[in-house]
Amino acid sequence: MPEVRDVAEKVRSKNAGPFWVTVDIFCGSPEAFERIKNGLTTQAVAVRFDTPEQLLKRFDIASLNVVKISVPRPSVQGTISDRDMHGAGWAALVAEMEIA
C-alpha cells in the first residue's frame, strides 16, 4: 500500500498554540485529495498519535485539496516534558502512514 507521502504533494505540521499541533496534507490534485481523504482514517491517525479519536479535529477542504488534522499535544508547549516545541516532527508520522 502507498504511504501518504507517495500520494500527497507535501505534508507539514506546525504549532497551533500551546495545546494543539496541526498536520496539513497538501494533496495537489482532486484525485490525490479523494484518495487521501478516503484512505487515511481519523481512527488510524488517532492510533498513530495514541490519542482518543474524539479529541482529533479533522477538516477535509476539497476546494484547496487539503486535509488538516489537529491533535492535542501530549504536554503543554514549552514545558519541560515538551519534546517538539514547534510541532515540526509530527508531519513525518503522518507522511509514513499507509493509505488504502
Q: Layout of helices and strands, plus pairs?
A:
Blueprint: H1 4-7, E1 10-15, E2 20-26, H2 30-39, H3 42-48, E3 57-61, E4 66-72, H4 90-95
Antiparallel strand pairs: 1-2, 2-4, 3-4
Major sheet description: 4 strands, antiparallel
Helix share, percent: 25-40%
Taking strands numbered 1, 2, ... along the chain, how are they ordered across the largest sheet?
1-2-4-3
Q: What structural category characterises the helix and strand content?
A: alpha+beta
- Shape, per Cα inertia axes: elongated
Order of helices and strands: HEEHHEEH
**What number of domains?**
1
Mean pLDDT: 94
- Parts with pLDDT < 50 across at least 5 consecutive residues: none
Number of helices: 4
Strand content: 25-35%
Computed over alpha carbons, the radius of gyration is 13 Å
Annotation, overall tally of beta strands: 4
Instruction: State the end-to-end distance.
Output: 6 Å
Features:
100 residues; four-stranded antiparallel beta sheet; 4 helices; 25% strand; elongated
What does this structure look like?
With 100 residues, this protein is an alpha+beta fold. It has one domain. The protein is 27% helix and 25% strand. The protein has 4 helices and 4 strands; from the N terminus they run H-E-E-H-H-E-E-H. Strands 1-2-4-3 form a 4-stranded antiparallel β-sheet. A hairpin with a 4-residue loop joins strand 1 (10-15) and strand 2 (20-26). The longest helix has 10 residues, at 30-39. The mean pLDDT is 94.
